[in-house]
Amino acid sequence: QLHLVESGGGSVRPGGSLTLSCTFSGAGAKWYAIGWFRQAPGKEREAVATINFTEDGRTFYADLAKGRFTISRDDAKSTVYLQMNNLISEDTATYYCGAAYLEGYNSRFYLDPSRMEHWGEGILVTVTS
Prior knowledge:
The chain has strands at about 5, 10, 20-25, 35-40, 45-50, 60, 70-75, 80-85, 95-100, 120, 125. With about 130 residues, the chain is an all-beta fold.
């Protein structure tokens, strides 16, 4: 059983930056793909970005994140980061950390919330002037 804990959320002005952290633990955690997903009020959960286990290193970005967000991973600290730049009001949402073992699966699975096997409790990001 993997345990995921998000941190780093808060309120930021449009155009600002924020870095989210997902600390993971549990047996075999280093072999899991870990991603960031978000859910705004009244909307479905959507993918932001996912990173596979370190030895693979592949990253996957949803269109909403390309050019603005960067996902990275530090297994020594058991943490996955999401650096978010040039934030806009539409980025306001609860951000969730999700994990799954997806080796051998189609790349589209890495951005599919229904494929995640473990979830954190989420953290709120508010972009407002």
